[in-house]
Specification:
- It is a single chain.
- By secondary structure, this protein is mainly beta.
- The protein contains one helix and 14 strands.
- A 14-stranded antiparallel β-sheet has the order 8-7-6-5-4-3-2-1-14-13-12-11-10-9, with helices on one face.
- Strand 5 (87-97) and strand 6 form a beta hairpin.
- The radius of gyration is 16 Å and the shape is globular.
- The chain starts with a helix and ends with a strand.
- Mean pLDDT is 88; it is low at 13-23.
Length: 207
């Protein structure tokens, strides 16, 4: 079952606590159920806050609890991305699991990003000079623009490569791992996180 925990953490683009909006903030919320083998094992909430001005904050939170006989898996995963004028300024990731606590951080320093990812069996440190303008969190609030070739993966500190095999369907691939994003009328309705054991299926919940 440790392998299942690793697969879920490795595939997550995901996650953050929705903060209480201020009076000057427009807030959009998307709520999803997380399933394994047809059973609900958790929830995911995506939030976009658009204050007056140039800043936009995206957040995602995933809360998963799985019981397999004598094995208990618990994962709380949070991402917060802050954009200004369409450029990512700061991304923070926290993961609290029964395998330990982990974090990633990507911060714009004026002419480059400092990137540090210290996650479960994934450690990465780099600098990046190209401004980041599209991240995984953006995919929750509309289908990627035509020709969008990649999305910044906050957890890993690098990129998913994107492709569109058919209308309303996008593939996100990194290091042989694959997620499938399905849209209907421009709205993200299903994510399939593929792995050899069991797929994680994330479905939009009715309002």
């Amino acid at each position: 079952m440790k392998a299942l925990a690793l697969i879920f953490l490795s595939f997550l683009p995901l996650a953050a606590v929705a903060q209480a909006p201020k009076a000057t903030t427009t807030t959009e919320v998307r709520r999803y159920g997380i399933e394994v083998a047809g059973l609900r094992v958790g929830t995911m909430t995506a939030t976009r806050q658009v204050p007056v001005g140039a800043d936009v904050t995206y957040s995602l939170v995933s809360d998963v609890q799985v019981n397999f006989l004598f094995y208990h898996l618990k994962i709380y995963y949070q991402v917060v991305n802050r954009f200004r004028n369409g450029q990512l300024l700061l991304s923070t990731v926290e993961a609290h699991t029964n395998q330990g606590d982990f974090a990633s951080r990507t911060e714009w320093k004026g002419d480059h990003y400092d990137i540090v990812a210290d996650q479960y069996k994934h450690h990465y440190k780099a600098t990046e000079t190209t401004p980041i303008r599209y991240a995984v969190t953006n995919m929750f609030f509309g289908e990627p623009p035509a020709g969008q070739a990649r999305a910044f993966a906050e957890y890993f500190g690098d990129y998913f490569h994107l492709s569109r095999p058919k209308a309303g369907n996008w593939r996100a691939v990194r290091a042989g791992r694959e997620d499938e994003y399905q849209y209907a009328n421009g709205q993200l309705v299903t994510i399939i996180k593929k792995n050899p054991l069991k797929n994680f299926v994330i479905r939009l919940l009715p309002k």
